[in-house]
Amino acid sequence: MREALIKLAAPGAVDAEPGQSFRVPIVTRAEFLEISKIRRAVEGLAAAEATPRIADEQITSLAEIERQFLDAKTKGNVAEALHYNRQFRFTLYEAAGMPNLLIIIEGLWLRIGPCFNYLYPQPPIGTQGHHNYDDVVAALQKRDASAVRAAVERAIDQGGQILLPHLPNDGLDQSSATTTRTFALP
Known about the structure:
There is one protein chain. The protein is mainly α. The chain has seven helices and three strands; from the N terminus they run H-E-E-H-H-H-H-H-H-E. It has a three-stranded antiparallel β-sheet with strand order 1-2-3. Helix 3 (56-74) packs antiparallel against helix 6. The longest helix has 22 residues, at 29-50. It is globular and about 50 Å long.
């Protein structure tokens, strides 16, 4: 377990503390906005690069993952919705065939991953409603890299609009924040 936590400390997903303890860091609004700007650039790049390379079967798979995502979201199953959201994105990004870019994206997701829990609950939506992932799949089918990139960037922006109100202001004393959890290993 210690080795896994040390690996999580490298991208900033946890902070190593004295006495073999670890702390899940708080992401402030300023940090989230910075990471979102970087995510738009690198995830948009991965989406655009994936567009001409992705196989038709992968596009079909993405449409099925989106259906499962929307179904989980409609049912209020947060864990499943988060799982399928990540699966959709990383299936797309892996199709870019750029493993170093994928490592960067994974590090950014690790850093802000705990924030994703604030995406839910959301007002109920039907699986027939329009979603950014509809635009991704449609643009992939047309092999329109600009539209795929725009849909991914829009999804990042809209997620940020939901998350920002839940994040602490930059002047917050992080030692007193209730969202910090410190734990020690024996």
